[in-house]
Design a protein that fits this description.
Layout (H helix, E strand, L loop, with lengths): L20 H12 L9 E4 L8 H8 L2 E4 L9 H11 L13 H12 L11 H15 L6
Parallel strand pairs: 1-2
Length: 144
């Protein structure tokens, strides 16, 4: 127990702009709204309390939110695989406030340019670019 005026120990360091539902909604909304609507129709979340603002997120972004069943990581395989890859850079419990946004973006860039077996050995960046290109080619003529 800390003494008078001392800060209590924090397991994972200070929160990066907060870790509650409001902070998560703000960050996720800012991220997802930069993606074309056709590529963000749905999102699957786990059941963490930081994601309890899902209804507001859905209204703000137009994305439908689904939840994986408890203890069912196979329902979110890409997320689980990515978490494993991130652990190569940031072991569980790492205080991410020790790194700058530039450092975190560099890791994201590295992982987004790493070929994945599940993508036919394409990189996530290549698949995303292909999806954007297919949206542009579909243009206004689409009847669906």
């Amino acid at each position: 127990m800390p003494g008078w005026g001392e800060q209590p120990p924090v397991k994972n360091g200070p929160a990066l702009g907060g870790y509650g539902a409001l902070a998560m909604n703000t960050a996720l909304t800012a991220s997802i709204t930069s993606v074309p609507q056709q590529l963000r129709k749905t999102i699957t979340w786990d059941r963490g309390k930081e994601l309890s603002g899902h209804a507001e997120f859905a209204l703000d972004t137009g994305s439908r939110v689904f939840f994986a069943d408890p203890h069912s990581p196979w329902q979110r395989p890409t997320n689980e695989n990515t978490n494993g890859l991130l652990r190569q850079y940031f072991p569980k419990g790492t205080d991410l406030s020790r790194w700058t946004a530039t450092d975190l973006e560099a890791v994201a860039h590295t992982l987004n340019n790493r070929p994945r077996k599940a993508l036919g050995w394409k990189t996530p960046a290549e698949v995303f670019t292909d999806q954007l290109r297919s949206l542009k080619q579909a243009g206004v003529a689409s009847t669906t």
